[in-house]
Amino acid sequence: MISRLDSPFHPWVAPRVTHRLSVGDGHELHVEEIGPSDATAVLVLHGGPGGAIKPSYRRLLHPTRHRGVFFEQRGCGRSTPLASCVANTTQHLVADCEAVREHLGIERWVVLGGSWGSTLALAYAETHPERVEALVVTGVYLAREIDRWWWWEGMRFVYPEAWDALRRHVTEAERADVREAMLGRILEGDTEVATDASVVLGSCEALTLDVWPDEAEPGESADSRARWRSSMTLFAHYDRHQYFLEENQLLAQASALSGIRGRIIAGRFDMCTPPLGAWELAQHWPVPLEVVPAAGHRWNDPLLGRAVVSALEGFAR
Known about the structure:
Shape: globular
Oligomer: single chain
Helix content: 25-40%
CATH superfamily of the largest domain: Alpha/Beta hydrolase fold, catalytic domain
CATH topology of the largest domain: Rossmann fold
Number of helices: 10
Number of strands: 8
CATH architecture of the largest domain: 3-Layer(aba) Sandwich
Order of helices and strands: EEEEHEHEHHHHHHEHEH
Largest sheet: 8 strands, mixed
């Protein structure tokens, strides 16, 4: 990989404290904090659905000016029960954000969300705008029909090999609706069928995340395959239910964001969530939009990361 910039990220830090928080329906969340308790609170929402907290996310926050709050969403990572789709909807996750805030005694906080995390961040801010001091979203995913179309079909114009891998994984009769065939395998297939489909789908998604992708293929160990299945089970559950949002809901309700400071950030070459969603959000929520040249999707992209770090610095008290 070509090194394009000195690292824009803050130093590595370990969690200051971790919590286990019961949110009902049998779900218990894993929650982490970094930074001083009297610093500007920042809620960091990971992607997916089905993602988890990555240690690199802590490097986006200033170690003394931010109080970082991270939680792994229902069914994700170290939250339990793993991969559970029971009582697991966008509305449940919005309520979980509030439960975490109340548990930690935070009045208002900055909210950062990337990819699926941007969807959840927007849904949370539109539901509880009085609790959001500022909002930063990247890799904006509005979960509309056109956004789902891009993810499942449009990306073949850039990654024909990934699309071909999906088509070859299903029968010829199923190729008229590859999306439903793959979701059915993951959600209703036996363990081996669901795991195989999860690995194929996850590896196709991974191609779209970086301008300079890692050459490593998804691991084929039993542990790696199990992680893919857990992650893709949550993804398939949300995708099949249109992310539990009405069509165009996040833009239709964007007026709720009118009093919230914010920043919208997109990588110009983000092939997972192209800049169109970010641009359309900016037409409904007029805050600065930054489209970062040559940047991709993930926060560990140094170009995209620099923009995120700068935005969060600007909202620190």
